[in-house]
Amino acid sequence: MGRLLALLATIVLFAGCGGHDVSGPMAPESAAVSMPGFSFTPFTTTIVVGETVTYDFPAESHNVIFAKVTGAPADIQETTNQKVTRSFLTAGTFPYDCTIHPGMSAVVVVR
Ligand SMILES: [Cu+2]
Q: What is the pLDDT at residue 9?
């Protein structure tokens, strides 16, 4: 049983990281979104199932609130000067907004 779990964990690791070296507990960054001014850049981030998006919050305070779509990750509350990563484990289109700044919206497409 332990061996089976170890094997499954290995398969998940390899499937999830696209062959990159996994040297620590942090998942590799597969896409990044920055927030210059009051916009998410890029507007559309396209990844595959199991990949991550890292949100790079600047000094200006923003949040990331996902539309209530099945498979959407947890929201990110108001954050500054920090990187926050979310994993996407379900294929779909996941719009999100910064509710602090009206019109500050973007989308993650998971294939
Ligand atoms: Cu904002």
A: 45
Ligand 1 mean position, distance from CA 83 (Å):
15
Q: What is the pLDDT of residue 6?
A: 47
What are the percentages of helix, strand and coil residues in the chain, rounded to 5?
15, 35, 50
Provide the whole-model pTM. 0.75
Q: How far is the CA of 31 from the centre of ligand 1 (A)?
A: 19
Could you give all domains of the chain from N- to C-terminal order, each with its CATH number? 23-110 (2.60.40.420)
The Å distance, Cα 90 to ligand 1 centre, comes to 25
CA nearest neighbour of 67 among 109, 26, 34, 9:
109
Length of the chain measured in residues = 111
